[in-house]
Design a protein that fits this description.
Strand content: under 5%
Structural class: mainly alpha
Order of helices and strands: HHHHHEEHHHHHHHHHHHHH
Shape: globular
Distance between the termini: 17 Å
């Protein structure tokens, strides 16, 4: 009885975190971040008690996910251990602590889902996540239609985002990142042959909401990510069909996507203009190729993201130790003033750098991968990539295993949602992994908690004897 109460406590804590945190500005501000972090630790404590009691009742025999998933979890724990060591060595404790917790807390959430949830609880969480993301998207659309996203949950928006949908996040790019997760889950359901009409109808509705929210956000990164999502879905999501049907579906899907893209370019000129303005395409139009290249490169040099990324790389290259171990967790914003200005200045010659640091401050690099390299060095980047690659490999292996089983049954699918859960997690990882090349979605606590829960739901599907 006690183990059951602890298990329900863990389940409730996980649900509260992943369902509520996106509604509270992504839990970015400390007055939201810390209560949710405390809740994660409390639910983890209940989960630990549940494991101890369950192990005692079964003489230590515990059901576990597949071997590849366990390897991925071990690599995640290895990276987290390295991050903990670097956190303890950091010079600015508060910033390093938050940075480290951004890695630790999603791992704790994932462990509870992966090792503690029953199949029924996992299905409930999957359904609740889909419903929650649907409501988030609807709120964003309605709020934008009523007041142009002038208010974000009753608070004034930032002036630079005028005319763009922001939903429950202050930044439209970060809200678009959450909608990418919704779109990934929906594509997983739509490409599952036996998901059932009710599931697929809901998935179609949520996918339409998510796509509309992404378009209204006018996020360039999210727009490109949608194309990556569709390509990944075509590559990974058709394993429930015979090979000849897969080829036909991919050809038809590519033709449909191309037609939709051409139509979109004509129907949404404002969105397309944002791409052109960023790269200077309007100025390069009609120029020879060499001149076009010069104009585009010059235009990019003056943009905020390239400057922040260049400054982070200068900080990373500042010493051999920094290149190997990084400058320290959370140290980007503290050392930014020292490395922000471009390196072409000369104090002795009284020559200012071409791009001085006198207009803005960079709290985040606007590239999660570059910031990971800067703050944790080559060691941290390689450890993190190894863990991410192991997780992706484990989920892909599960899809291939399912495809082989279907081939033996003459491609007659069952009514299980395993394919939808695993594919949805793969697409979510691909979406945020790509979008984070030029943004910092993975710095948003609610987003990484969502991603951790979704990935863990997929990993739990590899458990050989998944308890009901």
């Amino acid at each position: 009885m006690t183990a059951r109460i602890l298990q329900l406590t863990s389940f409730g804590g996980v649900c509260l975190v992943v369902l509520l945190s996106p509604w509270l500005f992504g839990a970015w501000e400390q007055w939201w971040f810390w209560p949710f972090t405390a809740l994660i630790f409390l639910s983890t404590l209940a989960f630990a008690g549940q494991l101890i009691l369950s192990a005692a009742a079964t003489d230590g025999a515990q059901d576990a996910p597949g071997r590849q998933v366990r390897v991925a979890v071990l690599l995640c724990a290895l990276f987290t251990g390295y991050a903990c060591v670097r956190f303890l060595q950091a010079e600015v404790f508060a910033d390093a602590e938050r940075n480290f917790l951004r890695f630790l807390t999603p791992l704790l959430l994932a462990a509870q889902v992966l090792f503690g949830f029953s199949r029924r609880q996992a299905r409930w969480l999957f359904a609740l996540l889909l419903a929650d993301l649907c409501l988030l998207g609807l709120y964003g659309l309605i709020n934008h239609a009523l007041n142009g996203s002038r208010l974000v949950l009753g608070c004034e928006r930032y002036a630079q985002y005028a005319g763009r949908l922001t939903g429950s996040y202050y930044c439209p790019d970060h809200f678009a990142g959450v909608m990418e997760l919704a779109l990934g889950l929906c594509l997983g359901l739509l490409l599952t042959r036996a998901a059932g009409r009710a599931w697929q109808t809901l998935a179609g509705l949520v996918a339409a909401i998510a796509l509309t929210a992404i378009v209204w956000s006018k996020s360039r990164g999210a727009g490109l990510t949608v194309l990556v999502l569709l390509a990944a879905a075509a590559a990974w999501g058709l394993g429930q069909w015979p090979p000849i049907v897969r080829r036909r579906l991919r050809f038809a899907g590519a033709a449909l996507a191309l037609a939709a893209l051409v139509l979109f370019v004509h129907l949404a000129p404002g969105y397309v203009t944002r791409f052109g303005a960023y790269f200077g395409w309007d100025q390069a139009r009609g120029q020879p190729f060499a001149e076009k290249r010069r104009i585009v490169l010059t235009h990019l040099e003056g943009r905020d993201r390239p400057q922040m990324i260049a400054g982070a790389l200068r900080a990373w290259r500042s010493s051999p130790r920094a290149m190997v171990f990084g400058i320290g967790p959370g140290m980007h914003q503290n050392l930014w003033p020292h490395f922000a200005a471009s390196a072409d200045g000369d104090r002795a010659a009284h020559k200012w750098p071409k791009y001085p640091n006198n207009t803005y401050h960079s709290y985040e690099v606007h590239s999660d991968w570059v910031q990971l390299l800067e703050e944790y060095g080559l060691v941290g980047l390689l450890l993190f990539l190894a863990a991410a690659a192991a997780a992706v490999a484990a989920l892909l292996a599960e899809l291939r295993r399912e495809s082989r089983d279907l081939a033996e049954r003459q491609w007659r699918p069952t009514g299980d949602l395993k394919h939808a859960v695993v594919l949805g997690a793969l697409l979510g990882i691909a979406a945020l992994g790509f979008h984070s090349l030029g943004d910092f979605n993975l710095q948003m606590p609610a987003t990484v908690w969502l991603l951790g829960a979704i990935a863990a739901l997929a990993g739990a599907e590899t458990r050989p004897d998944y308890p009901a």
